[in-house]
Amino acid sequence: ACEETLYGETEDYTVNIAAVVGSGELSINQELILYPNPFSSSANVLLPGDLNDWKIEVFNNIGQSVFIDYTNNNNYILSSENFESGLYWIRASSGNKVLRTEFMIH
């Protein structure tokens, strides 16, 4: 609802938070499993066994691609060596299948 106030018009908005990172040991998005989450040195990224030729891409919290790698292994080790502490997204793609989840490095 829009209201007139001393400072002009105001409106109420509802904000829904869809996910929380760092509250558990696993981040699961369909068939992509990343653990532990959060992590400080490395994390395991488990990918579906029915596909190979995976492209692994990591994005920072403002959407910039900060890491790209390729693997045929369904158990990928993601190292925090080149990342600062913070919130990230990982996207794994093979063919027309794309899996995503978020993770935190501390």
Can you summarize this structure?
The chain is mostly beta strands and 106 residues long.
Which word captures the global form? Answer: elongated
Please compute the radius of gyration using only Cα atoms.
Answer: 18 Å
Order of helices and strands: EEEEEEEEEE
Number of strands: 10
Mean pLDDT: 83
User: What percent strand?
Assistant: over 45%
| Count of alpha/pi helices | 0
User: Largest sheet, described in full?
Assistant: 4 strands, antiparallel
Q: How do the strands of the widest beta sheet line up side by side?
A: 3-4-5-8
Task: Please explain how this structure is put together.
The chain is an all-beta fold and 106 residues long. The chain is 0% helix and 53% strand. The strands form three sheets. The chain has a four-stranded antiparallel beta sheet with strand order 3-4-5-8, with no helix packed on it. A hairpin with a 5-residue loop joins strand 6 (54-59) and strand 7. It is elongated and about 60 Å long. The model is unreliable at 16-28 (pLDDT under 50).
